Fold each of these.
Amino acid sequence: MGDANVHVDAWCSEPDDLLVYRMSSDAPVDVNISVAGTFLKQSRASLETVSDGHRATLIVMGRMPGLNIGLLPHPSENPWEDEQDGTGMAYAGAFSLTVTGGDINVGDNSLQCSNINGLSLRFRSMSGFKGSDQQPERSMTVIADHLEKTIDEWSTDLQTMLDRHIADYRRYFDRVAIHLGSAHDDDTELPFSAILRSDEKKEPHRLEMLAEAMFDFGRYLLISSSRPHTQPANLQGIWNHKDFPNWYSAYTTNINVEMNYWMTGPCALQELIEPLVSMNEELLVPGHDAADRILGCRGSAVFHNVDLWRRALPANGEPMWAFWPFGQAWMCRNLFDEYLFNQDASYLARIWPIMRDNARFGMDFLSETEHGLAPSPATSPENCFLVNGEPVSVAQSSENATAIVRNLLDDLIQASHDLENLDEEDSALVREAESVRSQLAETRLGADGRVLEWNDEFIESDPQHRHLSHLYELHPGAGITSKTPHLEEAARKSLEVRGDDGSGWSIVWRMIMWARLRDAEHAKRIIGMFLRPVDANAETNLLGGGVYGSGLCATRRSRSTGTLDSRRPCRRCLSKATMAGFAFFRPCRRIGMREASMRSVQGAESKWMRHGRIRQWNIRCAVRSPRRLR
């Protein structure tokens, strides 16, 4: 700022529920703080003199329009009510600004600081949300007045706040670490965007540096977006600058919300899955209604689009995405997978009703087929096959739907062994699950050796489709492992035909599957594909995904989903998490890394030296069931 040397610190503190911006300068400077955009509907400001300078308060507020989908005569019309009706949820934000030296002038939606030597800006926001089953507060002034009354209670000791923020963050972040030795051959620090746009000729350790950075950044995003007793991370995490966001900032349950949480167990972030557990508890009531009224089944059925109000009903549109009632059943896989890591009996008791009610639905929705019981009719999320040259999405059965039920019943039966004092109703359900599980259709292969996506050898409308739903048993399921080599080979052939490219999150899913097949070279190749730079202003589509300079996943619209889950393949290339009773440890020589280490507070500590030779293992098993090491 001119000839002045300016130092800035900024952080967003969960313990204090404040965003803080602190600036100091060795010479007087002018600073203008303004608020603009469609979020802003009204504002008010005040100014006062305090003992160490001047303090200003700026209160901004707004209100969302109300949704009236279902009342429109034509789907192409704007689905939002006129904002003047004021039917949406209100929100507000409060800025408290203190400066040293100089003056503050209050403008329209702005605070203008002149000749100041320093400032501290604190910000807190609040919405009218009262619960997924409650009507929200719609009055902007009610929210703004309540928020303004809290300002005097905010901490003013910024250094203590910063220390508290760092300690809070570190208690999650420091639980695991990956160190790729060649990424630290010198002490030169380069910006992430510069490394991303470099090539291996100029930066020979580009892949190692980026992989380590993305592993850390993915954990940073989840730590910052999914704290206990908040909302789960959605397609944008929690970060959205639009009042009409992409996909309405909802939860797409046919892959994306699950992908956000795949690493809570392996990265020892068990507290961060709590919002997903809470959302699934809240989904049981609407899920019961959907199962009963739409499909005539017991239990809970949740379709592919869930929102803040816990919508469980089908979305408008094509059956390729709308007719798929297994969103909660898939999320049960996340919830139980977390238990395999934390072995917390109280946690298992909490998720049991969710698993139980989804198992009831899954069993009720089964029909007899020539290959065994299977959900019928069924789709494979967002994919189609050809009939007389035309794309069709609904089949008699699909591998994805059947695989979800297989894994759900397996998890339910396994969970029942660890639960104490099951009542007779639950015990009867487990016996029913054991009987039904033995009758389910198993994974079938086509004449070319690939996993069949639907009940017959249909021609795929898009052979390189971004979704890998028919390989659910490979990941996140547990049915395709080294114990089933013929299925592993079929999954390999399926992946080869599907191809490596896709949108950003789809490439990450491919990475994980190749890691589960223990093909580190192929996983490394796809990691390199994912870590290709994409210009923030570039048009993106279903192929050509990569990473923006910010580190966020590039797809048709910016998402955090792929970045969040880029952690898992990075770790799997070093050490495969526990699955089907095995823990796999592999030296990184297979992917060309000459030195690396991994540390986890609840799993293992491993170190590799040059040429991939293992130097040290320290393994601590936290589960009661036996594990074999490979």
Amino acid sequence: MIKKILIITIILFSMSMIISCNDEKVPPDTANNYFNVISFETDALKGEKLEIALYEKELKIANTCNPYNYDEIRVMFVIKTPSNETLNIPAFWYQGYTISFNTLGIGSPSGISGVASTSKDEPQGTEMISPLGDPHYRVRFIPEEAGIYSYVIQVYRDNKLVSKEHESTFEVIDTNKEINGVLKCSNNQHTLEFSKSNKVFTGVGQNACWYTSSTRKTKDYEVWFKLMNENNMNLSRIWMATWGFCLHWGKSYSDFSGRFAQAARLDNVFDLAEKYNIYFIFSLINHGQFSALVNPEWDKNPYNVENGGICSSPLQFFILDEAKQAYKNELLYIIARYGYSNNIISFELFNEVDWIDGYTLGAMKVKSWHQEMAQFIKASDPFNHLVSTSYKGTDGNANALDELDFVSPHDYSYSNKNLNESLIKTITSLQSKYNKPVLFGELGLKGGNGYENYEQDKTGIHLHQSQWIGLMAGSATAAMNWWWDSYVHPYNLYSNFKGAGTYAKEMDLSGCDFKLISNDDSVNNSNLSIIGYKFNNRCYGYIYDNMWTYYNKNIINKTNVQVTITDINDGQYKVYIYNTNTGDITSSFDVKSTSHTITFNIDSVQYDTAFIIK
């Protein structure tokens, strides 16, 4: 990595040259440039994160204002791309750091809101964060094209423009890297697709919301994401939980300086997500922060007046203008520091918001808060990420908002229930009700703990089913398992995701001719059902036994299964049959579509099978 440093001579602007938003004169103490060194901390390469440091000549900013409060001071890095697009990127206050991992003389880790791995086959040690250098502003973004970029730094004090400085250029070198862009909702209202390549995202995976080891901390993610990647999983969910990555859980709700280590660890997790090709819902607030009853943390919350905050009750966080403005400042910081990442599926405003104290009486206020915060993100995020939220069940009133891009249900009611049948009904109902994508955020047999789920389903049949049903029944992605640390990881159940993950890589769900497999399509056995997607020139299908559940494994083998698919252009095609456990092709053969219909036979189906026609 080549580090480029551009030394900028301090230019003294005359008062007449600096115009504020209200044409007011610039205060004398801000007439000089704020920054004199612009340092490119990473090489400027197409498709790679570019990190730029802005250094002051003298350390004044943190002594005169709160750099985490964008109302007091806001630094914008305004970029013009080679194609003449303007990006208004907020800078963020940054404390440098080093991350080290000590494997000597460690004790046994304890679990942090979960189960800590003690496996000798995995890295065990203590992760340590140490500050490095003086705090300063930084800018992050991913250049999506090669060529010459121009930029200017704009500084606002009390929301008034006081300085425009360092107009200059830099060159981004072509890497021939394919640019997918951020995820957006597809026109079919079922899937998510990348903004640049228009490829549809087919996600398979599970939650991994926080590190659970008290010692190795984000090394957990190195272990989890590697195993997920090896099993073709590319989907997850990460929380800014108070015991993990939350920024405002420090000395005050508006000063994040005491949380630099948490922010640094989250930087590391973002890097790991990119390394292992993991896309994730980024959940910004865990419900317990604003509850004294459910996973209660309200007594420790910096927003609580008892702790020097501004809210006398949890519901006031959603009502008071001062509280809302304070949180918007945090949202700006999150966008500035982490919004560069195309691995973010969405900014999830809240996890299970209906657990907060006073929700029943304040539901409409909470809905209005969601609308206001979603509008703010969409207006402030130069990278145009999706926005979502979640409830403790499958639905909630904010899902009706146009500002929320998809529905993210949670459901732990699958104990002693036919998961295939029930999950399809939930996905179909929500998609029909809101006409927007459904991305199942949390799923489990029951809500106790991972061990209880293991006792009911030791081999992970419901994991396998939730991936295939979510992937093939009209949802945006597979349905995400919740018990990552206490079920999937300790019992090594990752292989339950591999078949769906391998198959998903072969799916191409792009195109305006997208349709769900319908009642016009069939299998000739009443014990079997078929779901999937079809296009004018291809089809992706999943066939499963109607009675197969984790508690009913005695399923007879069905032979000579005939499959009929309609609405396929006439012509020659090839059918590929897949093993749903491994994703391997077990057989392939040629077929012909006549009168827009293809009929073919599968030798046998016991539990399930999948096919592709193309």
Amino acid sequence: MYLNENRGNHKYAMTADEPYADGLHERNINKTDVKFFGEGRTDYVLLVPERRGEHLNFAIEEFTGFFRKATGYELSVKTDAEDYGNRYISLYSTREEQKRKMDKRFLSRTNDGYGILTLDSNIFVYASSERGILNGVYDLLGELINLKIFSADCIVYDRKPQKILLPDFAVKEIPDFEYRMANYGIAKESGSKVVARRLRRNLEDETWIPVGSYYHDSFIFLPPEKYYKDHPDWYCFKGKSDESQFSKGGQLCYSNEEMRLELTAQIEKYIERYPDLCNITVTQEDNLDWCDCAKCRASREKYGTDSAVVIKCLNKIRDDIDAWMKEKGLRRRVELVFFAYISTIDAPVYEKNGKYYPIDDDVRLKEGVSVFYAPIEAYYEKDFYDDLNRRFYDNMIKWSAISKGMYLWIYSANFYHYLAPFDTIDSMRGIYSLAKKCGVKYIYDQAQYNNLNGTDFYHLKLYLNSRLQWNVNEDIEKLTDEFFENYFDKAAPVIKKYFYEVKEQMKYIEETYKHFRVYTVMEKPNYYPQQILDKWLDYFKTAEKSVEYLRQVDEERYKVVTDRIILESISARYLKIMIYKKGDFNGDLDKFKEEFKRDVLRLGITRVRESKKFDVEYFIKHWILNTPDEDGNII
């Protein structure tokens, strides 16, 4: 199979292990004999422009805060309108930076990338945006004080260094994906942007024009409650098309020209309302319905997919919006993004001599129209190079042949079973590498996005997502080892043993019984025999004993590390309760359940599955403690 780069001009053979080199990760860093810090002080100041936004102010806080924690020294912050001396770290377009000639051409294609350069014994962190400066600040701190951020509560750095020599920097960084979306609740829905920013992730409210929802928003643009009565032909509903159906499915009819004109008008209102944002989704509803009117049916027959009618609709909207923006004097480009999802998953292409081409020019995506490829039916324990996922591999390549840029939505959770193991770590690099080769610029690896804390190595997966989305060529095994050593302290060996045994057990289940999808039922005795679960629970007892020494050394760290161990034990404890309610609990099932309840609530797990109904308190009350529900039933 071949990748059509440059819109079908040539083909490029791919393998899962092939390094990808198209991001920009030029890193030349050498030590000098110039003292940056010593004897408890430094002559350097942090030099910043007078006019600053939110990200730059946060970058200043992060730099001075971590430097103070590491060295005990409060670094001075000066604006370039003040007397700042001749030793400084320049952040973002200061007057000193503007005096220097440095190669910034690479920054024209990134907002998140940055450069770090040492000139005349001073350090310059430069970028095209404040976001880039913030990303560069974390890199700079990594070199100066060995800052490493593994999770929200696992941040390490050198403590009280005696001397820091000035590094000679010549660094240029562009992430492999420009948009690397926060995908776990602790970084996405915690109410704080700190975790996402420290892991160099993007947030939806800083990326998308908010329509009311960032996805599945077609009925927000054109709510049937408002339009259906006068325009029933704008919609399709299964069964009786009246108001009772509005919450039960349905889609827009994308071949309807009158609907398209009103949809265009609504999109224009949102673009004008949010002048600083440059992406907007125009995406189908989340159901299996699709229009079967004569025009939509004819399009399906001609192109072999329902995506063609959406592409044509969005291409026309693009033309109208471009004309409207020119008339309004609006200079920015706003990307219109539609889903390739369920009914629209397939691209309207044909194959010739190993390459893919649009069936006709009407279904080639225009500049400023992008596909949001969301293959929810894939098997995510495998990457897309695996034969099991051949259809989804082919489809990504097909879409890349008719579009100049792609957005990708993939999946890293079992959405019915948040507390059960679900291993997507081994497939991560392969999927990301293929995505980058296909021109993907935005990646949302949807995980437990609405769960504020989690078991099954929730924090490790978030860390690996973050590192590999910046650079797909990072060494996963090395990153994993470093995470375990810092996160679990002396419990790392036994927790790592558990980690790899869970992975092996999932491979056994997959090979013996079935492959996993994002809604596969996992609580089965043949998947997890009780003796295996009991062995794993013994591992956690051993792990807790191995960090007992911290009680005498650092009581606070002892509590933190012990809680991390208990958090990982939740998965095995959950499986034992759900599968073996009449099994061996040393004669005290009630005590086992009460301890499970206490730890789940105390550690801040908020969801056991995606559904809003199944928050953790509902689950514990009705599933664990068997309290009758509102109808008097035991679940």
